[in-house]
Amino acid sequence: MAITPLDIEKQEFSNSFFGFSKIEVETYLYKVAQEFHRIFQENAELKSKIEILNFDIEKYKKIENNLQITLLNAQESTQKIQNDAKIQSEQVLAEAINNAERIKKEAEENAKNIRNSVSDLQESKNRLISELKSIITTQELLLARKGFSTEQKILTNTENE
């Protein structure tokens, strides 16, 4: 059974002939009650503070738990982003290599086609020169048979002009 400050204040003693002085006992009991009352209030305040602190501790534990979960999620997200970026960079690199190879093949094909065209043009030029030489030679022979020399014809043409 808990004794409260009020219990101490209300406590009464029986009178006896050779007993303690009633005033002294009551004064002392009053002082004890006051001290007990102070301790009782202090104890109640401390219990209240403990409750508040326990509540705060639970709140902070929840916040800490949420922060840990958030941190883990952030780490996982960071790892996923890094992995995705690595995969994407590898894909971009592979695509760039494929495009470079395709462009190189096209350039080589174009260069080959240009070389072939140049070669064809060179052959056509040589063929035309041969044909023109052949025509000129034939014409000189025809003119020579008719008694014209190519030198006379050239001189006559330049004088007439």
Structural class: mainly alpha
Percent range for β-strand residues: under 5%
Sheet having the most strands? none
- Number of domains in the coordinates? 1
Task: Please outline what is shown here.
By secondary structure, the protein is mainly α.
Explain this structure:
With 161 residues, the chain is mostly helical. The protein has one domain. 88% of the residues lie in helices and 0% in strands. It contains 3 helices and no strands. The chain has helices at residues 5-10, 22-145, 150-160. The protein is rod-shaped, with a radius of gyration of 61 Å. The chain starts with a helix and ends with a helix. The mean pLDDT is 88.
SSE layout:
Elements: H1 5-10, H2 22-145, H3 150-160
Structural features:
single chain; 161 residues; mainly alpha; 3 helices; 88% helix; rod-shaped
